[in-house]
Write a structure and sequence with these properties.
Elements: E1 3-7, E2 10-12, E3 18-25, E4 33-39, E5 46-51, E6 57-59, E7 67-72, E8 77-82, E9 91-98, E10 105-107, E11 111-115
Parallel strand pairs: 2-11
Antiparallel strand pairs: 1-3, 3-8, 4-5, 4-9, 5-6, 7-8, 9-10, 9-11
Length: 117
């Protein structure tokens, strides 16, 4: 069983930056995709960024050029660097570890990010 713990959320002014972290406990040998999703009020949970074991990344169009996903396999941690934040980025951010094509799928508890002046 894998447990994910997120940290780094908070309140930031427009144009500011935050760095989210997601640390896993347990074996992640079966995991081949790590990512971040977000869910705003009354919205669906949408993909923000994904990273594959080879380091290939994929971003939602709304965050391209502003957000960067990275990971440290040895620390079993995935990061999301968020720059040039906008009020529309306000949401609960969830990390996700999964094995594509299987039922193996783990979610963190979520961390609130609020962008407001």
């Amino acid at each position: 069983q894998v447990q994910l713990v997120e940290s780094g959320g908070g309140l930031v002014q427009p144009g500011g930056s935050l760095r989210l972290s997601c640390a896993a406990s347990g074996s992640i040998d079966s995991i081949n995709v790590m990512g971040w999703y977000r869910q705003g009020p009354a919205n669906a949970r949408d993909m923000v960024a994904l990273i594959s074991p080879s380091g290939l990344t994929n971003y939602a169009d709304s965050v391209k050029g502003r957000f960067t996903i990275s990971r440290n396999i040895a620390k079993k941690t995935v990061y999301l660097q968020m720059d040039s934040l906008k009020p529309d980025d306000t949401a609960v951010y969830y990390c996700n570890f999964r094995r594509a094509g299987s039922a193996t799928n783990y979610w963190g508890q979520g961390t609130q990010v609020t962008v407001s002046s």
